[in-house]
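Notebook entry, structure prediction.
Reason for the run: the old model in the group folder had no record of what sequence produced it. Starting over properly, with the input documented here first.
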Amino acid sequence: MKIRYTSHAEIKFDILKRYGINYSKSQIEDVLQNPEKVKDSRKNRKIAQKQVNSKHFIRVIYEEKDNDLVIITFYPARRKRYEDKL
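New structure, fully documented this time:
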């Protein structure tokens, strides 16, 4: 299964860099390939999340399309906000 990024997801790397958050594509793809939790979301999308340190997760919003995983967006999240919601 191939992993593709929407234009918004591509831009998100630069947006987060402005705030001192530097994620690589390999980190984002690792969340999809080895998530700690996955939750169904709206519009047939899914949310995968993985802890990156003691206080934060990376959350990746994606959809399965034509045998590909299409990353819509991703963002850092505080662990205490989401750890009980998935």
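Summary: The helical segments are 7-17, 25-33, 79-82.
The old model has been moved to the deprecated folder.
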